[in-house]
Design goal:
CATH architecture: Orthogonal Bundle
Shape: elongated
Largest sheet: none
Radius of gyration: 17 Å
Number of domains: 1
Number of helices: 4
Strand content: under 5%
Helix content: over 70%
Order of helices and strands: HHHH
CATH class: Mainly Alpha
Structural class: mainly alpha
Number of strands: 0
């Protein structure tokens, strides 16, 4: 049996990679994938804590987080594709010029 501290350490590493990807990268698709990685790291921590307490609350919360993440993927990718069709390039720095 693998101790839950290993799951939490893996979750922390994945979350850190996701945050670093959001801060450093300028491609919206990479930023989007980094956000998803951070969400999955949080899900892993929730499952580990749920297993530790012996209650299914962690797994239930993960189910709702995954449903919200699926909606985020649908809306986010639609916005990214629409911007790419208009601009033919994707860069977060250039998207800031699209403000009103």
């Amino acid at each position: 049996m693998i101790p839950e501290s290993w799951y939490l350490a893996l979750s922390a590493v994945l979350f850190t990679i996701g945050v670093v990807g959001v801060v450093i990268r300028r491609n919206p698709l990479v930023i989007f994938m980094s956000i998803e990685l951070a969400l999955n790291a949080a899900n892993l921590a929730l499952v580990a804590f749920g297993q530790r307490t012996g209650s299914p609350d962690g797994q239930a919360l993960v189910f709702f987080v995954m449903a919200v993440a699926a909606a985020e993927v649908a809306v986010g990718l639609a916005i990214i594709v629409a911007i790419f069709r208009v601009r033919q390039r994707l860069s977060v720095d250039e998207l800031s010029m699209m403000r009103w």
